[in-house]
Amino acid sequence: MLASIVATCKLNDVNPAAYIAETLEAIIDGHPHSRIGDLMPWRFRKASSQSQQGPG
């Protein structure tokens, strides 16, 4: 399972270590089950780059 996550991250040009760390933090912080799609690797870069840009 872990190899699949890492491979999916690489296919989506996402740092696997950063993805796993931030996803686990989100789950621990209570990310809602109904929004699990937000945690997928192909959405990670978009969410991470928006949070790094700050308020627009």
How does this structure look, described?
This protein has 56 residues and is an all-alpha fold. It has one domain (2-51). Helix content is 64%, strand content 0%. It contains three helices and no strands. The protein has helices at residues 2-11, 16-28, 41-53. Helix 1 crosses helix 2. The longest helix has 13 residues, at 16-28. The chain starts with a helix and ends with a helix.
- Classify the beta-strand content into a percent band: under 5%
Number of strands: 0
| Distance between the ends | 37 Å
Shape: globular
How is the biggest beta sheet arranged? none
| Structural class by secondary-structure content | mainly alpha
- Our Rg estimate from Cα atoms comes to 11 Å
Question: What's the SSE pattern?
Answer: HHH
Mean pLDDT: 85
The percent range for helix content is 55-70%
Number of helices in the DSSP assignment? 3
pLDDT < 50 stretches: none
Count of the domains = 1
